[in-house]
Structures are given as structure tokens and as C-alpha cells.
Amino acid sequence: MSAAAVWSVDPRTGKRREQVATEATAAGVDRAVRAAHATRESLADRTVRAAFLRTAADLLDASADEVVAAADAETALGVPRLTGELARTSAQLRSFAAVVEDGAYLDVRIDLPDPTAVPPRPDLRRWKIPLGVVAVYAASNFPLAFSVPGGDTASALAAGCPVVVKAHPDHPATSELAAALLRRAAVKAGLPEDVVVLVHGFDAGVELVRHPLVAAVGFTGSVRGGRALFDAAVARPVPIPFHGELGSLNPVVVTPGAVAERAEETGAGLAGSMTLGAGQFCTKPGFVLAPAGPDGDRFLAALTEGVAQAAPAVLLDHRMRTAFVDGVTERAALDGVGAPVVPGAAAEHTVTPGVLTVDAARLAAGEHALLLEECFGPVTVVARYTDEAEIAAVLGRLPGNLTATLHCADEDPAAPGLLAALTPLAGRVLVGGWPTGVAVAAAQHHGGPYPATTSTATSVGATAIERWLRPVAYQSTPLHLLPPELRDAPEA
Amino acid sequence: MSAAAVWSVDPRTGKRREQVATEATAAGVDRAVRAAHATRESLADRTVRAAFLRTAADLLDASADEVVAAADAETALGVPRLTGELARTSAQLRSFAAVVEDGAYLDVRIDLPDPTAVPPRPDLRRWKIPLGVVAVYAASNFPLAFSVPGGDTASALAAGCPVVVKAHPDHPATSELAAALLRRAAVKAGLPEDVVVLVHGFDAGVELVRHPLVAAVGFTGSVRGGRALFDAAVARPVPIPFHGELGSLNPVVVTPGAVAERAEETGAGLAGSMTLGAGQFCTKPGFVLAPAGPDGDRFLAALTEGVAQAAPAVLLDHRMRTAFVDGVTERAALDGVGAPVVPGAAAEHTVTPGVLTVDAARLAAGEHALLLEECFGPVTVVARYTDEAEIAAVLGRLPGNLTATLHCADEDPAAPGLLAALTPLAGRVLVGGWPTGVAVAAAQHHGGPYPATTSTATSVGATAIERWLRPVAYQSTPLHLLPPELRDAPEA
Fold first, then answer.
1. In chain A, what percentage of residues exceed pLDDT 90?
2. Which of A344, A447, B243, B350 is close enough to A458 for a disulfide, judged by CB 3.0 to 4.6 Å?
3. Do B250 and B401 meet the contact criterion of CB atoms below 8 Å apart?
4. Residue B491 banded pLDDT, cuts 50, 70, 90
5. Average pLDDT of A107-124?
6. Do B119 and A84 touch (CB under 8 A)?
């Protein structure tokens, strides 16, 4: 039997654009992993790795037009957004080059001998070493920043781990282009091209997580797919770390003080954030607790006005379009759920953004749990509350999130309590502003309680490198046998 | 049906000493977890936590005679060893008090806004917050240092997490004493006593890992028990981190240079390390690659002489005695395996330490995989090699380990290559010395590739606290709403 073809598809028409590759067989996955594994030693030098990451960024920038055009043709995300995403992606590669050079991520700790300690302390010098081959599962919604050349790949390479990427079927042509650029950058930096290997295919993804030489996994995608791969990763004879970002509702709490001060601005801001990228951000604010009453009505009016003006949108693929239409239809049909802007199917290949409303009291009572699940696409649910007890009850029913956002007045007496209630629910807590847009920064944390992520790690920002390392302590080891980073003891 | 009784048993006689408690029912586990969970807020203050940990250390020291007597009666580990273990345990509690006060573990990172960044960077301030209730499964072989008042408990409390300890059935009376001391220390420090709750019983342990309010697990024990609990932890609707230390062979490589220089000293040192605490350390050197030939013979002679002189030993319980006797019998019966000192059953309640030998070539060829599995108790396997290729082939067949040890000559040409080969196999790599004795230090790493541990974390040393925390980033949050630790931005 010949291998299945991998096609690039135009979501604006549903038509096949070109055949890009074939799906990897089990033997193909084995070859890919072994090829990557064989390059491990070559990645040992931090200076070389930093140069490689910078070269990759340069090549990506130099091919921006071609890459963005391919990505737009496959994802319909639009040239402006994808141009920004490419700039973010090359900046991210450079930021990890700086992380590698800086070396603080090695978390070097040196204890000089102390025979008087209980128990006596020998010379101990600890740093971190790369885990081995990292399997990266690319995301649908960020064909660059969370895919082949994205944060998982960049941070794994920065850590010194070869990478096998499982391409997302929504953008195989972009994936091939990006992989070729990374492999070319490797060769330019004096590394084997197989420090990054690309595979396609659903079955290939399942084979990959089970391969004995795969040492860790980075994943961005759905709860269903991510949990299945997580389950496979932890069921292996030797379980491996699975850093998966699966899904997030990204709750927003708007206080009476906030809507008294700026109902219209807040509603319009929310409309912009939830329709950005056709609502296909993992940080889309998908659930809002807003006060009942006239100020809350003004907020809702501004939100609905903004969403009603948003253009119909093409989603990443037709499966997602169907899931969105089914999801909003099922939600809108629930008893007591209103739809001031009805989300759903528009023209053949597009969807209409929308807003659903419900009384928070229903959710507080345990009804309509479906409204507390992420619906991927341009829709948000506004739950109207009448008192703080309802807010607390609804927050108590929420799953884990990437973000939680508080909109409050300047000296809002409710703010400290709400911030304390939102912190356990998310990995990033915002006061004002909107969660879409994830800065690449040392203090960033893009992760959160399950199902937001399957670990306590972040997939964005400098500390994302920590996922691909483990500590090793050297005891009583002669200095000349130690890596240079462990030779300098601290001042006595 | 009344709850099952929990008995303290004397392993020197196999006789019941006293009934200590009853096994917790499912309802009892639920009460325990909820009681611990209710204390979370009380642990928010770092100064109070540090005072609590120091008070616990003081109370443990003040009750040393009583605690050591109980532990010796239940474990037969002997008063001198247990006196040392108690001192180590109180020192460990104090060291985590210092870690909490220091605050570096919070890993505070502050990024000031940068509108020119791609994408623009808002004000981001990240630190770490406690995960919630931690379930600690106590070890058989360290009734104090890896049990109720041990490193898992101390590091979890230091992180701000309440703890529910599942007592080990080998030392329930010691567990009750230690839990009472910790709970008294909590009250003295102004905390609710339920910051530490103790439960007994196998079924209780299974209930505990499944409880929705349990947020993370620390475990020290066998591969079989640990893997079953790990599987339960990751199969939950909301999977939780499981930091388990399951088993370790702790390989030692002795070079021709080492035995040429000091065969007798090395053999005698190994005999002492592998019989220490009746060979019941998780870091016992259980597998040794030593050269064939006359120098290697001298090493083996010194080892066998030391082991032959070791007194028969009482193991922690009769189940372990049976497992040891069966394990060494099965190994000794393998084709080509010698026993210069025959390990096995001695008098009714004791066992004889022993040494097994085999040609490394057999292991290199894939024979006798059983010899590469940990056998808990006073036995080690010496594999005699004829060249470096055999060493490499055998190391390639080893599972993950807590430690790996190299004995080499002063300017041994084989040392760099062997150190590079041992590093992927373990979390702590020693050059000279023996792996038993795990210093409590900032640079310590007590963990290693599976099955040594189920995560990349350490259970000993300052960084053990990292297991019970997760990062949270605050974005654009007014300073007065932030915790004090996040208010001071770095110098521009």
C-alpha cells in the first residue's frame, strides 16, 4: 500500500491546493526519530546553538513573503496577522538564542564540601542537561509561532534537544517551508540538518509519542487530541514528560465599578479581542461575568454592537467550522440562553461571530455546564450576575485556564477579593486589557491548571526552556572532568 | 464492618507490638483531605511557615529518644543510624525554613512594559504559588527522613501546601509520633493542626491519589507500588503531578586504573556501602562493572571479605525478607552466576549479605536481564568486563538510576568517556566515594531517569520545593493589588 498523500487545502474554498508530502509510516517515524537522535552530540555547544537559532530567525525573515503567502493560503488568517506572527516567531528564535548564551537557565548550583554538616556534605555541583529528542505537535491556529519554527521547537533546540515536529494538517505546505528553513539554518551553523525533522500524519503522531527514543513532548491543540497523546505518553513503559496546552475558557470578570466607569470601552474592547483571528486564539476570552442592571446593559450593548459589525470569518478548516456551528447551536438552544448576536454559519465557507447570554444564577446552580467549556471560534458567553456570591459560585465551577481577566474600577473594593479568586484558576492574571496577545518575555507564563496545560510549565517566554532539561549533580568530581560551567566555585 | 486495625510490628520477632490506629475508610480520607485543604490560607505567610518548620525541628529534636526508640522497635534499623536520621530530618526542616525565608525559590521575574517589542510587552510580573494539598507516601526504609516529617512533607509545607501523609505500614507508631509533633508545632506557630494529617491503610492510599482536592503527590517506594499510584494520578479527570522515587540499581564502574591503584580500598569501601542499613538504601550500589584479571580479583576479594564479615541483618519487614531471599536465590541460580558470598536466609528473622558475580559479556549480549533490576537488600552484582566495549554495551542496557559512580585512577584516560556515558543514566554522578549518604544541600539532586523517579525533580535538597509550586504571571496589575514580592521592579 502506498503512503497516504498530504494535501494543502484552501479553507476559503475547501479545495485542495497541492500535494505537499506523504504521511509517515511507522518505519518513517522510526527513521525520523533515529535521525534526530543521532544529532544530539552536535547540539552540545551553546555558542553553536545560539548561532543556529539566530540564523534560523534570519532565514525566516528573509523568506517572509513566501512563508506568509503559503500560510495565508492554507489558514485564511490573513497577511497582516501572519506577517506579525512571523516577526514574533523570528523574535522568539532570537530570544532563545539570548537565553542559551546567558546560561542562567542551567541553574548552576555549587556546594563546597562541609564535613560538619548533618550528614556531611561533599563537593556537589549541579546543572541541567537536555532530555533528548523532543516531539513537537504543531498547533492549527498559529502556523508559525506555535508550529514548526515556534516556541516549542525554539526552546527545545535552545535546550540542546533535537526536535521531531508532527505537522498540523491545516498547514502542511507552510510546515515544509519552515522545516526546510530550519534545516538550512542548521547546516549554515555547522550542524546536521536532522536536528529538526518533520513528519506528517495522524498515525505518525501516535507512533511518535510511543517511540522509545522520544524523551519529551510539546503539544498545542484540543483537549480531546491532547489528552489522548498525554495518556499514551504516561502509559509508556518509560513515561515521558508531556507539556500540552489543551484548552481554555479564559474567564473575564467585569465589576459594577468597571461598567459604571467605562461600559462602552470595555464592551468594545471585548468585541475586538474575542473576534481577533476569527476567535481562534487559545487565549480568546470565551466567558464573561458581567453585572445585571443598566450599566451592565450598556456594556453588553457595546459588545454586541462591536461583534455585529465584525465581518463573517473563514475558520482554519471545515471540520472546525462544523464544530463551531454545532457548538454554538447547541449552546444557544439551552433554556434561558439568549443570543443578542447569533453566531453560526454564514456563507458556504464562513461563520458569523456572536454573543450568547445567560443568567449567572443558572450556572451557579450547576445548570448548563456546556457553557463553561471552550467553544473554539468567534463566540463568547456573557453571564449576568446580581451579587458577588454568584460570581464566587460560578468561578468555583470553572476548569483551569491559561488566563483570567479582571476589569474593575480604579479603587474598586471588590478587586482584591476577585484577584484572589481568579489566581487559582489561571496561569496569567490580567487587570484590565485583554488576554489575546501573549508577550514573549522572561516573566511570561503561558500555561495554567488542567486542561489549560498538562503540566505546570509555560510554552511561551524564557522559562519555556525548562521543560526540556533535567538536573544532574556531580559529586566529588575533579574539576578537569567537569563542564566549564561547573568549574568556578562561588566566593567563600 | 469496623475499620481494620493498624499494628506496629517488631521485625526482629515478627510479633505485633501494639495497635496504633485504624485504617482510614474512603470517608476518612475525604475528611483528612478536606481538613488539610481548609488550612491552605493559613499557610500563606512565609514568616509563619519558616517559624513552623523550625518549631517542628525543635520538637523533633526534643523528642529524639522517644521517636528513635519507636522507630528502632518497628524497623530494626538500630539506634545509632536512627539517631543520625533524626538529626538529618530536623536539619532538613530547618533548611527548608531558610529556603522559605530566602524567597529565591519564588523565581520572581519582572518585565517592565516595552511597547516597541514584537509583540508589544505589557507589565508582567511572575512568581510561584502553591499547588494545594500534597499527598505524601512515606518510605519503608527511612522512617523519618523520607516519611512523615521528611523531605516531601518539609518541602511541601515550605511551599505553602498542606500535607496528607499516607503512613508506611512498617512504622505506624513512629508515624503517629511524628505527625503529633508536626501538628503540635503548627499550633505553636499559630497554624491549624490540620496542615498535616496522617492516614493509614493501603486502600486509603489509593483513595488519596484519586481525591479531587489532592493537587500533587510525593512518593518513595517500589516500582510496582509507585507505578500503580502514578498510573492512578495521571488517569484522573484532572491529572496531577506525581513525583515518585521508585527504584534504582546505582551502577558503579571501576576502571583498571582504579584497581591497579587501590583494589583493596575500593573493595572494602563498596562492602561498607552496600551493607549499610542492611542494604536498604535507595542509593545502595547494586551493580558493579569491574575488570577481569588479577587487579579486579583483588578488588573482588576485598569486597567479598568485607561482606563475609558483615553480620546477618534484620530487614524492615518479613515481606521484604521473603522478597530478598527469593530475589537472590533466583539470581544466583542463573547460568554462569557465581556467589563468592552467598546471600540469603540466615536465622528465622535475618538475612545474610552477599555478592554475586557474572561475566559482563553475558549481560552485554542481553542475557540475565534480571541482574539489571534492583534487588532490595544487602546484595550487589559484580560484572567482570574484559574491554571498554563490554562496559558500553552493558551501560546501554541499564534502566534509569538515582546515582552512577565512577572509580578511576588519578589521571585515568578512560574517565572522560565513562563520565559521559554515566551521566545520561543518573541524576547524581560520583567520581570516587559511594552513593549511600545523600547530602541535604542546594546543589543536591536526588532523582533520575525512570524508574529512579517519575519526574525530572529532586526529593532532596533546596530545589525539592519546586515540585509543589506553579508559576503565575500578573499582567498590568496595579502594584497595590500585587503581593509585596512582586512590587519592586528591577533597576532600569
1. 96
2. A447
3. yes
4. low
5. 89
6. yes
Nearest CA-CA distance, residue A486 and chain B, Å: 11
pLDDT of B241 strictly over 70: yes
Residues in A touching B125 (Cβ below 8 Å): 443
Q: Do domains A5-246+453-486 and A251-431 have the same CATH topology?
A: no
Structural domain boundaries in chain B: 5-246+453-486, 251-431
At residue A467, the pLDDT reads: 98
What's the CA gap between B428 and B435, in Å, rounded?
8
Which residue is listed with cell 495554567? A448
Burial of A109 (0-12, 13-18, 19+ CB in 10 A): buried
pLDDT at B350: 95
Q: Give pLDDT, residue A348.
A: 86
- Indicate if A161 belongs to the active site: no
- A251 pLDDT exceeds 90? yes
C-alpha B360/C-alpha B289 separation (Å) is 7
Query: In CATH, which of 3.40.50.10190, 3.40.50.970, 3.40.309.10, 1.10.357.10 is domain B251-431?
Result: 3.40.309.10
Contact (CB, 8 A) for B86 and B144: yes
- B447 to chain A: which residues are within 8 Å by CB? 470-471
Give the closest of A122, A424, A481 to B439, CB-based.
A122
- From B432, B443, B456, residue closest to A111, measured CB to CB: B443
Q: Chain A contact for B122, CB < 8 A?
A: yes
Q: How far apart are CA A174 and CA A86, in angstroms?
A: 12
Confidence of residue B117 (pLDDT cuts 50, 70, 90): confident
Q: Does domain B5-246+453-486 bear CATH number 3.40.605.10?
A: yes
Tell me how far CA of residue B411 lies from CA of B291, B415, B420, in angstroms: 18, 8, 16
Q: What crossing angle do the helices spanning A79-102 and A64-75 adopt, rounded to 10°?
A: 120
Output the average pLDDT for chain B: 96
The C-alpha cell that represents A296 in the structure block: 451592565
Q: Any catalytic annotation for residue A374?
A: no
CA distance A241 to A248: 21
pLDDT (0 to 100) of residue A14: 94
Determine whether the interchain pair A439/B120 forms a contact, defined as Cβ–Cβ distance below 8 Å.
yes
Q: How confident is the model at residue B115 (pLDDT cuts 50, 70, 90)?
A: confident
Kindly report, residue by residue over B10-59, the tens digit of the pLDDT.
Answer: 999 999 999 999 999 999 999 999 999 999 999 999 999 999 999 999 99
SS3 annotation, chain B: CCCCEEEEEECCCCEEEEEEEECCCHHHHHHHHHHHHCCHHHHHCHHHHHHHHHHHHHHHHHCHHHHHHHHHHHHCCCHHHHHHHHHHHHHHHHHHHHHHHHCHHHCCEEECCECCCCCCECCEEEEEEECCEEEEECCCCCCCCCCCCCHHHHHHHHHCCCEEEECCCCCHHHHHHHHHHHHHHHHHCCCCHHHEEEECCHHHHHHHHHCCCEEEEEEECCHHHHHHHHHHHHHCCCCCCEEEECCCCCEEEECHHHHHHHHHHHHHHHHHHHHHHHHCCCCCCCEEEEECCHHHHHHHHHHHHHHHHCCCEECCCHHHHHHHHHHHHHHHCCCCCEEEECCEECCCCEEECEEEEEEHHHHHCCCCHHHHCCCCCCEEEEEEECCHHHHHHHHCCCCCEEEEEEECCCCCCCHHHHHHHHHHHEEEEEECCCCCCCCCCCCCCCCCCCCCECCCCCCCCHHHHHHHEEEEEEECCCHHHCCHHHCCCCCC
ipTM of the complex: 0.96
Q: How far is residue B285's CA from residue B279's CA, in Å, rounded to a whole number? A: 9
